[in-house]
Specification:
about 120 residues, mainly alpha, two-stranded antiparallel sheet, 5 helices, 2 strands, about 5% strand, elongated
């Protein structure tokens, strides 16, 4: 939330505009001098800031959010019944995220992991 103040002419979070959000996106993800974070990290950050600005708009602290919104795509099946067509999501969500493959330990391996120094099972 300090980016507009530090890098955008001393703007506070209440004065942030869409251009500030896009400049932050460019710095965080694309700028060679920036941190160049992964898409999944960016999405978590945007989700948090978007939730903050949604609250700030509802509470009357700011007239609009600096994060442009697009219509959320509907999903088929059980997801469809829980979502409405008018739901919005940040337009700047990254698309280069991949699902993390989770591999579970079998119970025997887990017990060995939990008890370091004990003999391995035969």
């Amino acid at each position: 939330m300090t980016f507009p103040w530090v890098s955008r002419r001393g703007r506070g979070w209440r004065d942030a505009a869409e251009e500030d959000h896009l400049a932050y996106l460019a710095w965080r993800r694309r700028d060679g001098d920036g941190p160049r974070i992964a898409g999944s990290t960016w999405n978590r950050e945007v989700a948090g800031v978007d939730a903050f600005y949604r609250w700030a708009v509802r509470a009357g602290h700011v007239p609009t959010s600096p994060i442009q919104q697009v219509a959320r795509r509907l999903r088929i099946g059980a997801q469809l019944s829980r979502r409405t067509a008018d739901e919005q999501r940040p337009a700047t969500y990254a698309r280069d995220t991949g699902a993390v493959r989770v591999e579970w330990l079998p119970p025997v391996s887990y017990r060995v992991w939990r008890a370091p120094g004990s003999p391995a099972p035969s």
